[in-house]
Amino acid sequence: MAEPARTSRAIAMLRAYIDDSHMGQPPLYTLGGWVAPASTWEPFSNAWRDILRMKPRIEYFKFDEALSLDGQFHGITEASRDEKLRLMINLIEETNLLGLVSMIPHHIFDPLFGRHPSRYVRNPYILSFFGIIAKLASHMSLSSEEDKVEFVFDDQPHSVKQVLDGWEKFKDCAPAKLRKFITEHPPQFLDDKNVVALQAADLHAGWARMRNESAFRGKGAPEPLWGKERGERIRSLIQIWDEESCSTAFEEMFGFKPPRST
């Protein structure tokens, strides 16, 4: 905004950081992350870096490496790993981040989209990407929010071009009541090794996938590595796509109901 409007009006902007977990691998295609006021992310990032640098020091965080004690966690004991995770969960809870999760079961996605001739349609990341944006916008609409959201995603070399090509179409198709929450410029795609907020997103996506995959396989929910008593106050918007929501997305994309076959 030009002066004097810029200094006479308080402008609030939200920023969401989103990462995937095993996106190309069944049984669940998962995106997850966090949203908070833009001003929140700098102190959060500084505190997260402090946790990374605590002994035993790691350069960046990845949930899969923490789980397997590999990569940055190679040679680190389970007790030291769990303590680092407890500090990270405490930070997320104290910062009052709002979690976002989108999960599409493979057995629902594949019959509708998996055999489509377009590689764009067959890629579950695309539907997940636009779905998680629409989920947050819908929540904001119901909550009477007025802020806009800037989205930052982990860099996806095989999907970025497809997403950017579809961004304008997505904005045109979105209902006006949701479109007002989305910035005009497209999302950014950055490297999670350099952007610690994306590392926090990776933690959320990885844990959500792990926990719900166990449920899909009929196993009990695993206990968090950071302990049951941590993170109880963390809030999350979780969307597990069912057949109805995937069919609705199909119809909105192509203008006709999906064909049914046995």
What does this protein look like?
This protein is of the alpha/beta class. The chain has a single domain (16-254), classed as Nucleotidyltransferase, domain 5 (2-Layer Sandwich). It is 48% helix and 16% strand. Strands 5-4-1-2-3-6 form a 6-stranded mixed sheet, with helices on both faces. Helix 2 (38-53) runs antiparallel to helix 4 and helix 5 (106-114) runs parallel beside helix 11. The longest helix has 21 residues, at 196-216. The termini are far apart.
In short:
With 262 residues, the protein is an alpha/beta fold. It has helices spanning 5-8, 38-53, 63-68, 78-95, 106-114, 119-122, 124-142, 160-173, 176-179, 196-216, 243-254, and strands spanning 13-21, 28-37, 98-105, 148-154, 188-190, 235-240. The relative contact order is 0.20.
Q: Which features would summarize this protein structure in a list?
A:
six-stranded mixed β-sheet; disordered N terminus; 262 residues; 6 strands; Nucleotidyltransferase, domain 5; globular; 11 helices
Count, helices: 11
Order of helices and strands: HEEHHHEHHHEHHEHEH
Q: What is the domain total for the residues?
A: 1
What is the average per-residue confidence, as pLDDT, rounded to a whole number?
A: 89
Biggest β-sheet: strands ordered side by side in the sheet:
5-4-1-2-3-6
Number of strands: 6
Gross geometry: globular
